[in-house]
Amino acid sequence: MHNTSPTWLSESPDDPFSVHRSASAVLDRRGRVVAWSEQATAVLGYEADEVLGRTVLEILVSDGDEALIAEATAACLREHGWFGLLPVRHRSGRRVYVGFRARRVRRLDSADEWLLVGSLAQDITQWEIDRSVLDGLFARSPVGVVVLGPDLRILRVNQAVARFGGLPPQAYRGRRAAEFLFGPDADLAEGKLRSVLETGRPVIFAEQRARLLHDPNRELFISISAFRMQDPSGRVLGVTEIVEDVTDRHLARRRLALLNEAGTRIGRTLDVATTARELADAAVPQLADALSVDLLEPVTRGEEPAPHAMGPLRRMAVRGIQPEASTVMHPEGHLFSFPEHTAPARCMADRRPVLLRTLEGESAWSAAEPERVARAMALGVHSLLVVPLAARGVVLGLVCLWRSVQPEPFEEDDLTLAEEFAARAAVCIDNARRYTQQHNAAEALQRSLLPGEVPEHPAVDTAHRYLPTRASTGVGGDWFDVIPLSGLRVALVVGDVVGHGMHASATMGRLRAAVRTLAHLDLAPDEVLARLDDLVDQLATEQRQTDESAPQIVGATCLYAIYDPVSRHCAMARAGHPPPTVLGPDGRTHPVVDVPAGPPLGLGGLPFETAEFELAEGSLIALYSDGLLLADGRDIDQGLTLLREVLAGPARSLEHTCKAVEDAMLPDVPADDVTLLLGRTRVLAADDVATWELPAEPTAAGRARTLVTDCLTEWGLEELAFTTELIVSELVTNAYRYAGGPLVLRLIRDGNLICEVSDSSSTSPHLRQARSTDEGGRGLFLVAQLSERWGTRYGRNSKTIWTEQPLTPDRDAPAL
Q1: pTM reported for the whole predicted model
Q2: Do 433 and 274 contact (CB within 8 A), yes or no?
Q3: Buried b / exposed e across 38-53, counting CB within 10 Å, b at 16+?
Q4: Which residues, at least 6 apart from 107, have a Cβ–Cβ distance to it below 8 Å?
Q5: Rounded to whole angstroms, how far apart are CA atoms 565 and 256?
Q6: What pLDDT, in 10s, does the model give residues 757-792?
Q7: What number of other Cβ atoms are within 10 A of residue 266's Cβ?
Q8: Quick one: angle between helices 412-449 and 502-519, nearest 10?
């Protein structure tokens, strides 16, 4: 023979035709056995001396199988070899099936012989299955297979990898991943394979990006599984890598993650601008490299846009991963309109999204604003998406998305994702718009119920702050007021209705109106609060009867103070409200102020107390709501301490003091309404006040006229002497006639001339129309005609009737 171990015999121990496992025999040209292996004895049971020299037909072929043997022999002669399965007679007489490989060989003497190699059928069947699986992996499998050597150079790839890389299978042999993939992607893949080689631990379903050098704009993601190859001795032969294209699955999973993230990030507040910025943050850079959100101008104000409105648009948000993008896009807050025939203009007109995969040759893109377009193209902008923001069938604005860094153009799947983003954002923006509209209306109502510009008052210099809470909480029920009273006195008021919303604002307005009415009755602070307490209880009862579903009024707090610039006397009472802070002219906390807390308004039946004290000129009175003290998580005591530290700072105007308190104690958006009212006391000069005590006798009226005439002459107000004498004469006469006891007459000169007559009676005088036959009853009518205003106030054991006359006489006043 030329070769007793042909190359078509495998040396692999797993191959049933390997030299280590298979039975072998040699036949001469007449079919006689001339060689017989030990494996043949093990398989068929015949010893060598039993078969050598005998023909195969007489030893191994059973009756009836001659035709199969003859057919195999003919095929072998035609093809110079043969492979197949044949029945063979075992030495025991049973029939077994053996798989054969037959090959013609030539001896050195040129004689032909046949080499037979065989294994039992069950071994061959499993081997055939294994071979077919292996052939299938390399020829027909849709999953990629790559076999690499220890140096991570490719030994073999299957058809799936060949299609994936766009080259024939043989073109990959001897190459490395860096010759097909971008550097970072190749390094990542080889790092995984090197770890498998070194540790033997397999990699299972590891996903990574795979950008191909020959198709860099294609976004690909692959899943890698790999295991180390070894021979029976443990020698490392290389790595087998299973590669699967999971781009669609990865992108679908990424889109789902983006949608979930957008659902949590968009619409966290009821603010239109914030929602637009949340949309921009959710989409860049995951979906787009740059994005702008533009809303129709009415939407930004909380209004609903007109049907088919086209502009103008207000830019609400801009995002870009390139800093230079700001030179291309309009800035936030800019009001503009898109030029006609551009993609955004088409989107607004048609109410449909516009997808421009590529911008080259796109006339609708390049026709308008050529300079801006040129800058965009220089940045690499190559693909555009424009999606309308629509809710309830109304277009609110649009979103423009650009790609300049990501090489892949926008596709239909990106459009679907962008539409989902826009739909969620549009609903949130519309909700925010509606809330803004309602909140603006409620806030306008609330501000209309508060005093606007507080007029100057001779008793105090004032400054105030009112800061509404964040929009999501709703308008509150805080209020303050500065109310002029008779005798140049002034009332300072701060209150807070519990809760937020329209009901709190409406209740606040009613309480403020009630306080003004009660203040003009010149009631003491504790009496004012007692009557407010009854009113709050009455309002709560009415509300329960008329609207059970409405938020119920659960109470209110109030602090009411009266200051007299003539006597420097101050009286305060509070109903569950934070205590005032009073500082002397030297900036130190006033030691006398201890105003009893009192119950909140609405509890009913509990008394209020008035604290009274004197204040030096230039003292500072600070009234506030609890929102100021409790801001930033402080408690009441911490808030009071901080407030006193700020107020006790260097001397400054009240406006600057308000600003200092605001900066030191409040966040950008307070969690509750904040009200602050500051008042710096003034004292009327002694030269502008004249006071006399008169006895209750018939001559009191005459004495009063003389005193008034002399005083007005000294003040240079002689033109008011006649009318003032008549007023004083009537008031003193009434006090002497109906009150008894000593009388007090006081003149005060300021913007008006104030006349006051006080007595010990609590009887209130009444203005009435006297009949022609009455001898009296015309005194108060005369007083009312001669004065600009008049009224009565009550002390603990006295009453005072007062009048006011302008210092400049009214030329149109009736002649008497």
Answers
A1: 0.57
A2: no
A3: ebbbebbebeeeebee
A4: 1, 2, 113
A5: 71
A6: 988 887 666 555 544 434 444 567 788 888 888 888
A7: 24
A8: 10
